Fold this sequence. Notes:
Elements: E1 2-10, E2 21-30, E3 33-42, H1 51-57, H2 61-64, H3 70-81, E4 85-88, H4 91-105, E5 115-117, H5 118-125, H6 133-140, H7 152-166, H8 206-218
Parallel strand pairs: 1-4, 4-5
Antiparallel strand pairs: 1-2, 2-3
Helix pairs in contact: 6-7
Amino acid sequence: MREIVLDTETTGFDPESGDRIVEIGAVELMGHVATGNTYHQYINPERSMPAEAFEVHGLGDEFLRDKPKFAQIGQDFLNFIGDSKLVIHNAAFDIKFLNAELKWMGLPQIPWEQALDTLAIARKRFPGSPASLDALCRRFGIDNTSRTLHGALLDSEILAEVYLELIGGRQPDFGLSTKPEKKEGDTTPDWTPKPRPTPLPSRITPQEAAAHTEFVDKLGDSAVWKTL
Length: 228
């Protein structure tokens, strides 16, 4: 099963207000294992970079000036992702921007159902707990010390590790068999636990037992304790 872990950086929050994508990073997984195949592209947004966005990712006008425009890389990006499942943290944000850019080019848009949102998965697994990428790295003990600024490819690589933990750890398909597999040459007979030959003595003192009986009697004949 091929999956693409993906992240974008942008000039802001709303493509309909003129914000654009400035970086795309993606990591390919096959059977939940990174293949080493990646996609990474800086993009000229054809507009100036707001100071607030620059503080997040550090991508400025001078750096992006000679980078290709989205119209020059859009088809290559679609060719890379194909119809693979897209693993994205806060997928609604990235898909909104990608589809806006693709729409302006007249290219097919990405179906919403193609995306898998790790933010939603984290909130379901850990309700009420912080679910940012940094918070999940702390929860799972994933090293993100190199993440001083947001970067699409680095964040995708980190998210790939977080995703594997969210779906069950490094071995997502691992399961316990109902019967141990016998190895060749193994003569150890099947073993099942047996009752103790001598039951353990009660840890309740006579005084505690008497106090409990007195308490239950006060509850009446319908007390649950009297049915046990």
